[in-house]
């Protein structure tokens, strides 16, 4: 079983009603564009985009898909959106997604990431049209042993910081809803997806490595890094998204067999430290300098974090397509072209097509 061909994705998603929570965010906006390219009918549900240059705005997604501005803490509003739209597939991505913010505002992080997941599952629990649920959690849902080996789906969940703990808790919520309510229906597949650190064009979040680099390079200031030796499963945004799409296709094929949790990460040879990634960005940009500034009092963040993706490969037939060098090249090229005035819709479309043809 190899990666799904584009014609298979088109066949499956063409005309399907797909609900995407978090469509105004970095990953959600790319996913909605991709689904739109595949011919799906998409409804997004999320807080409004924050900045004028958010990918959602630059793409003009509001005119390409249906979108409801809403808070997933508002169960009645989520329910109304589900009841009106009658989705066949749900991708739940809406979350407070930044570790540092979770230290500043743990309550909102838990409310959104755990309570919000409960609300979304509660809203779709009685939805007769729904056939597949893909819930996006994180590689940070594992209890971190700071060991060299990749985490497997059967490893212990945990989380030192509120964000990681909220994602571990969201995993438990999804498993409980699957076991208690959806499994008995047998015609609805429920899975969770645990992906690594994602990079790519269109992300402007604070405290994320690529947006921080691009802001510094644009302003001709040195790039400041806190933890140069930390490793993360860096991958291009299209990698986990292709995993989520594959997962949905498999759940539609067999909702019982493919239910469960899946890791989506880079190949072992593509694991890089923060410093490696930033060096790569500077090289691809063509200029720039780096200032390593350890923060002794910084809140705790995991140092070593790798994923074992054997299950996604063996069971779903999914594997990573772009190595670390291509990931960095594609990412920096996106920002350079965007900052040079290139229309973002054609730029992002082109990357999706290049990825699908790879
Ligand atoms: N970016 C990464 O490296 C990464 C890695 C692993 C997992 N994830 C997960 O992937 C998902 C998407 O991440 P992202 O990078 O696109 O994040 P993002 O911050 O760019 O987007 C988050 C989205 O969630 C929405 N949202 C937040 N709070 C909400 C609320 N109360 N009600 C409704 N919508 C709300 C935002 O409006 C936005 O659309 C998240 O679940 C995140 O935890 C991201």
Short account of what is shown:
The chain has 13 helices and 13 strands. The protein has helices at residues 6-13, 26-37, 55-59, 75-85, 99-104, 106-124, 162-182, 209-218, 238-253, 274-285, 310-316, 324-339, 344-357; strands at residues 17-21, 41-46, 66-69, 89-92, 132-136, 189-195, 198-199, 223-225, 231-232, 235-236, 260-264, 272-273, 290-292.
Describe this structure in words.
The chain is an alpha/beta fold and 358 residues long. The chain has a single domain (6-357), classed as Rossmann fold, CATH 3.40.50.720. The protein has helices at 6-13, 26-37, 55-59, 75-85, 99-104, 106-124, 162-182, 209-218, 238-253, 274-285, 310-316, 324-339, 344-357; strands at residues 17-21, 41-46, 66-69, 89-92, 132-136, 189-195, 198-199, 223-225, 231-232, 235-236, 260-264, 272-273, 290-292. It is globular and about 55 Å long. The structure holds nicotinamide-adenine-dinucleotide. Nicotinamide-adenine-dinucleotide binds next to helix 2 and helix 6.
CATH superfamily: NAD(P)-binding Rossmann-like Domain
Whole-number tally of structural domains? 1
CATH architecture: 3-Layer(aba) Sandwich
Question: Order of strands in the sheet with the most strands?
Answer: 3-2-1-4-5-6-11
Q: What is the typical, i.e. mean, pLDDT?
A: 94
Main sheet overview: 7 strands, parallel
- Helix tally? 13
**Computed Rg:** 19 Å
Helix-strand sequence:
HEHEHEHEHHEHEEHEEEHEEHEHHH
Task: Give the overall silhouette.
Answer: globular
Assign the CATH class.
Alpha Beta
């Amino acid at each position: 079983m190899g990666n799904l061909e584009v014609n298979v994705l088109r066949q499956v998603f063409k005309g399907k009603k797909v609900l995407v929570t978090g469509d105004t965010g970095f990953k959600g906006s790319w996913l909605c564009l991709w689904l739109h390219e595949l011919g799906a009918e998409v409804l997004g549900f999320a807080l409004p985009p924050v900045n004028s240059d958010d990918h959602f705005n630059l793409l003009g997604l509001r005119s390409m898909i249906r979108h409801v501005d809403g808070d997933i803490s508002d169960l009645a509003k989520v329910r109304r959106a589900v009841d009106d739209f009658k989705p066949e597939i749900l991708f739940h991505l809406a979350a407070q997604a930044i570790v540092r913010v979770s230290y500043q505002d743990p309550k909102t992080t838990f409310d959104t990431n755990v309570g919000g997941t409960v609300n979304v599952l509660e809203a779709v629990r009685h939805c007769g049209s729904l056939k597949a649920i893909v819930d996006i959690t994180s590689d940070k849902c594992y209890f971190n042993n700071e060991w060299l080996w990749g985490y497997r789906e059967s490893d212990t969940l945990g989380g030192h910081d509120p964000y990681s703990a909220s994602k571990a808790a969201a995993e438990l919520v999804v498993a409980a809803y699957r076991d208690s309510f959806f499994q008995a229906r047998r015609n609805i597949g429920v899975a969770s997806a645990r992906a690594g650190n994602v990079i790519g064009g269109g992300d402007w979040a604070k405290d994320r490595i690529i947006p921080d680099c691009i802001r510094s390079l644009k302003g001709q200031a040195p790039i400041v890094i806190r933890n140069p030796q930390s490793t993360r499963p860096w991958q291009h945004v299209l990698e986990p998204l292709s995993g989520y799409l594959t997962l949905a296709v498999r759940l539609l094929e067999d909702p019982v067999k493919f239910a469960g949790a899946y890791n989506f990460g880079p190949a072992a040879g593509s694991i890089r430290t923060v410093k490696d990634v930033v060096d790569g960005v500077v090289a691809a940009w063509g200029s720039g300098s780096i200032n390593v500034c350890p923060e002794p009092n910084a809140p705790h963040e995991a140092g070593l974090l790798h994923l074992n993706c054997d299950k996604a490969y063996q069971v779903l037939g999914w594997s990573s397509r772009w190595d670390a060098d291509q990931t960095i090249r594609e990412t920096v090229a996106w920002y350079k072209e965007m900052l040079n005035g290139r229309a973002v819709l054609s730029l992002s479309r082109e990357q999706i097509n290049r990825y699908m043809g790879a």
